[in-house]
Amino acid sequence: MTLPAGVQTRTVTIAVPIDVLGGSAKAYSGTVKTDRPLVWAATGEPIWPVPAKLPAPVDGLITFEAPVVDQPGLLDASGAPITNWSCQVTMSGTWTGALRSRSRRFQIVEADVSPVALDVLLDAGVNPPVAEPNPYVKSIAGVTDVVTGVQLANAMAARLDAGDSSFSDALSDAVAGEIEGHEAGIDLGTANRTTSVPPMTSTATSVAAAAAISGLSRTVTGKGRSVDVEFYAPIVYNSGAANVGVSCMIVRDNNPASTDNQIGTRFSPATNNGPDMYIRRRTGILLDGVEYTFTVRMWTPSGTAVIVPGGNYPAQLMVTAV
Length: 322
Description:
Layout: E1 9-15, E2 26-34, E3 38-40, E4 45-47, E5 52-53, E6 61-67, E7 74-75, E8 82-83, E9 87-95, E10 98-106, E11 116-117, H1 118-121, E12 130-131, E13 139-140, E14 143-144, H2 149-161, H3 165-175, E15 200-202, E16 212-221, E17 227-233, E18 235-238, E19 246-252, E20 262-268, E21 277-282, E22 291-299, E23 305-308, E24 316-321
């Protein structure tokens, strides 16, 4: 395996150490890892902070490729762009049968020219990471600066109580994903804006054989971060067989065969009393500018699985930006 395409690296060398009398370490080896989880935004590939084994020394040098830490294009665990993160190398060797280990953090920057002798950089220290914060609300409903939840709730209540039609229209646009700066197609979570479906049945016996439930579909455009996907059905039961379970799965891009696209599954005992079903899962990073479609599939070992809308609480599928 290699790093994602587009990630800049530099060739790094580590020399096999010697003692004060010139004796070399035996069985000299090491590992390297990042200091935190990262994601290459262009492809959505995660880079985990797990130790990777370095190659064996050749002619007294261990040589490997290390990523540049001040390059753009990497995200931290919150989805924010980050630079100046660091790597950690741990080296081990034996002298006269005694094992010795040493760990150091280091940073390779764009200005470095390959090959970089890491032994020279080890004690130079590292700069603190620089994360670009996610934007926060600075003006809404007549409230400016950093807006707290209490301020927003009070301002919204006052505007609605006053019968401000322009404000009501703006809220409707926001729910539809039409306000500038908000991703079109991503719900804000109001129940009356989610999709309601008529009674729906399925005799499929596996998720692969199950069709997507008509009316429960959401298409969103990725923004280089995760989303929360929620499915709720107030009544789910089996009409053809008593006490036979019913399963539902949220599927991405109509591809249930891929485990990466199986967002979340829930099993219900599905007696004739018809218990409800709720699934909520957070996805991985959705690539910026790429469209993703989420649907729901239902199946049962035997009989007929049924979803019934619940009046004021319809069956729903919501996708919410994290």
